[in-house]
Amino acid sequence: MSQSSTQTAAPLAHVVRGDLLESVHSGHLVVLAPDGSVRFALGDPDTVIWARSSLKPLQGAAMVRAGLELEGAPLALACASHSGEPVHLAGVRAILAGAGRTEADLQNTPDLPLGPAAALAWQLAGGHACPLTQNCSGKHAAMLATCVAAGWGLADYLAVGHPLQLAVRDEIELLTGVPVSHVTLDGCGAPLFSTTVLGLARAFGRIAAAPRREPGSPHARVAIAMNAHPELVGGTGRDATLAMAAAPGLVAKDGADGVYAAGLADGGSLAFKVLDGADRPRPAVLAAALAIAGLDSEAIRELGRTPVLGHGRPVGAITATFGPTPA
Q: Which is nearest to 42 in space by CA: 3, 7, 9, 4?
């Protein structure tokens, strides 16, 4: 983000401890109506960002368009930042086996499972940091499977100029309506393409509405897979998993450094970037933005409740600075 994006950021969430405002998380947010018009915005939605793992559904759609034949649970894993639980690791191994590849072909950064309980269990069983247990291994396994299906080389599948990555770039520009202006590497080693907060929201609205508006399309296949298997997109207790489980038809995906995007089945959508990169305000901001988008239920409100603890008990809360406009 530029210096101007810092200056135009607006408060998204307050952290209150006792009777004092302790911290403020600022950033950029937009909520779009089903027709793509801006329903609500804070900060500057045109801010250029790294969307990080929120891009995975877009990458998944690009892979399906290029010939990836996965459906259902394996395709959900291709769009996941999974917790490294046994069901996730088994699914990644199955994707690799279906493509005639092995864990040795994965080129993502070695890491322990993202979920604390899964990481502990893996280490107690004698496991160590490896590509399989890193949270992006489903995406990388699917990238390998796409290359096999398309007849593309495997050794350099992470190169920015590889046909796979060019296809991903094209899909991101198609869905967001924003030209890619910056390119770098994500934490997993895959190329990372820039977009804007507004473009990211636009993409999620199109993906989530695709089962109705574009049946049979790559976007529809991604939405259906994520809808049906939210537990594979994240994991136990993860906010993206909880949000999709609470709202059938929702497509939601978190990203590192305070990024989030979600699309509703009617085409409404939202995206935001927390300027300081913090994850802790995300549930509160997500729930408030979903309410503005028209998705307001007790399950979503519960997702957004984030207590501030003192000696193990609630002494405050993290709350969004905004909410739905009263009727």
A: 9
* Contact (CB, 8 A) for 191 and 160: yes
Structure tokens belonging to residue 226: 């994520």
Give whole-number Cα distances, 248 to 39, 99, 155, 252, 287, in Å.
22, 31, 39, 11, 15
The structure tokens listed for 181 are 């202006």
Q: Are the C-beta atoms of 59 and 104 separated by less than 8 Å? A: no
Write out residues in the chain with pLDDT < 70, as ranges: 1-4, 324-327
Which amino acid, 41?
Answer: A
At 6 the pLDDT is 82
d(CA 88, CA 234): 9
| Burial class, 3, CB count within 10 angstroms (exposed 0-12 / middle 13-18 / buried 19+) | exposed
- Rounded Cα distance between 91 and 93, Å, is 5
Question: From the centroid of its chain, how far is CA 78?
Answer: 12
Q: What are phi and psi of 195, to 5 degrees?
A: -155, -165
Contacts of 206 (CB under 8 A, 6+ apart): 175, 213, 214, 219, 263, 267
Nearest residue to 195 via CA among 47, 7, 8, 40: 47
In the three-class reduction of DSSP (H, G, I as helix; E, B as strand; rest coil), residue 20 is classed as strand
| Domains of the chain from N-terminus onward | 3-320 (3.40.710)
26, 137, 151: which is closest to 77 by C-alpha?
137
pLDDT at 136 (0 to 100) = 98
Dmax of the chain from CA atoms?
62
Hey, is 128 helix, strand or coil? coil
Amino acid at 193: F
Predicted local distance difference test score (pLDDT) of residue 325: 47
Rounded to whole angstroms, the Cα distance separating 89 from 198 reads 34
- What is the pLDDT at residue 3? 63
**Residue tagged 């699917």 (tokens):** 142
What is each CA distance from 30 to 26, 146, 154, 261, in whole angstroms? Answer: 13, 33, 38, 10
Helix (H) / strand (E) containing 66:
none
CA distance 108 to 133: 10
Q: Specify the pairing of strand 38-42 against strand 183-185.
A: unpaired
